């Protein structure tokens, strides 16, 4: 078996190939981060005796830059794993590696694969990737629109030429039209795929889960195979992290904040609604407050409860039932 560590950047892929039968002998290669670059990499691997079916590639999750290479390698028959950078960094500290270069990082990834045998990664279906791209674009447009509104507000209270006011109003009108069209495109895309439409309906059956929270959670849950609700909550960064040691360190527990900050922000707003209108979330929130927990800690638990409920309705293929007795 061969282990291929790939350090990903925007322009290039630094690769290190290890043979499990002779791990002390490593081969290195740098290719472009493109479809053509991955094709060159596969040709080079073949010359080293590493066939796709006998190769396990390890990449760190680096925004969007790893996705194209990971998908191309998977489609070529290579086993692929996407790793958390913090996990790899801690592994490197355990090996005593203090030098940080692209070549060293690719070697570290290959060693991680050789010694840890991480779980494999599967790309999301094409229609889920399309939905994810549409949601990402919607978020970008929403942020641009808010910035233009902020600029117009400042212009209205300062001495600003009328032509600037008009330019800002024109930009706002354009962005609002674009955003409205994108909302329609998202709805049409979901309507055209019965599996997405059914899953979104199940998620939105949970009180406090609206279209935005539902569509983002749908993308996450359809992009990875989560075996338990706890795994999903950990991926989204809504699990508590405690900081205690001996008798002197008594840090307040806080959310891990791994994963997407945007989804956590949506879950926070959902939790604010849930503690008023969702029976199970409200009961949990009030019980924690009665035990002396802070409001922010109880809200974090409410966010986690909503994630668990969403996982449950999709796993069981059953809409949310208000009278269902569960234990939190």
Q: Which structural class do you get from the secondary structure elements?
A: alpha/beta
Number of strands: 7
H/I helix tally: 12
User: What topology, given as strand order, has the largest sheet?
Assistant: 3-2-1-4-5
Sheet having the most strands: 5 strands, mixed
Average of pLDDT = 91
The span between the termini is 44 Å
- For this structure, the quaternary state is single chain
User: What would you report as the Rg, rounded to the nearest angstrom?
Assistant: 24 Å
Order of helices and strands: EEEHEHEHHHHHHHEEHHH
Write a structural description.
There is one protein chain. Helix content is 59%, strand content 15%. It contains twelve helices and seven strands. The strands form two sheets. A five-stranded mixed sheet has the order 3-2-1-4-5. Strands 6-7 form a two-stranded antiparallel sheet. α5 (126-156) runs antiparallel to α6, α8 packs across α10 and α10 (261-277) packs across α12 (295-316). It is globular. The model has no long low-confidence stretch (mean pLDDT 91).
Element layout with pairings:
Elements: E1 2-8, E2 12-19, E3 22-32, H1 35-47, E4 55-60, H2 67-75, E5 79-83, H3 85-95, H4 102-116, H5 126-156, H6 162-192, H7 194-204, H8 211-223, H9 229-236, E6 240-245, E7 249-255, H10 261-277, H11 279-290, H12 295-316
Parallel strand pairs: 1-4, 4-5
Antiparallel strand pairs: 1-2, 2-3, 6-7
């Amino acid at each position: 078996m061969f282990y291929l560590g790939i350090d990903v950047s925007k322009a290039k892929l630094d690769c290190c190939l290890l043979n499990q039968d002779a791990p002390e002998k490593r081969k290195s290669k740098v290719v472009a981060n493109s479809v053509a670059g991955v094709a060159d990499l596969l040709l080079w691997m073949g010359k080293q005796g590493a066939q796709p079916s006998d190769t396990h590639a390890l990449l760190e999750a680096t925004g969007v830059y790893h996705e194209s290479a990971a998908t191309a390698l998977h489609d070529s028959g290579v086993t692929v794993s996407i790793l958390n950078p913090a996990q790899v960094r801690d592994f490197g500290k355990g090996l005593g590696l203090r030098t940080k270069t692209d070549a060293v990082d690719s070697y570290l990834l290959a060693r991680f694969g050789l010694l840890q045998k991480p779980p494999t990664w599967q790309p999301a279906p094409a229609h889920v990737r399309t939905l994810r791209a549409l949601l990402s674009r919607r978020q970008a447009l929403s942020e641009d629109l808010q910035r233009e509104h902020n600029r117009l507000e400042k212009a209205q209270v300062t001495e600003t030429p009328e032509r600037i006011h008009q330019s800002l109003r024109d930009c706002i009108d354009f962005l609002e039209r674009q955003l409205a069209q994108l909302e329609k495109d998202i709805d049409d895309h979901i309507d055209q795929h019965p599996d997405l439409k059914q899953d979104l309906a199940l998620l939105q059956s949970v009180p406090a889960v609206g279209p935005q929270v539902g569509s983002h959670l749908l993308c996450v849950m359809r992009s990875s195979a989560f075996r338990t609700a706890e795994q999903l909550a950990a991926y989204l960064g809504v699990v508590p992290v405690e900081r205690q040691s001996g008798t002197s360190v008594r840090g307040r527990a806080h959310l891990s904040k791994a994963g997407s900050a945007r989804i956590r922000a949506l879950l926070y707003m959902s939790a604010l609604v849930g503690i008023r209108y969702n029976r199970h979330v409200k009961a949990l929130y009030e019980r924690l407050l009665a035990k002396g927990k802070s409001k922010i800690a109880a809200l974090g638990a409410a966010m986690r409860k909503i994630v668990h409920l969403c996982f449950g309705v999709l796993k069981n293929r059953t809409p949310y039932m208000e009278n269902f007795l569960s234990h939190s």
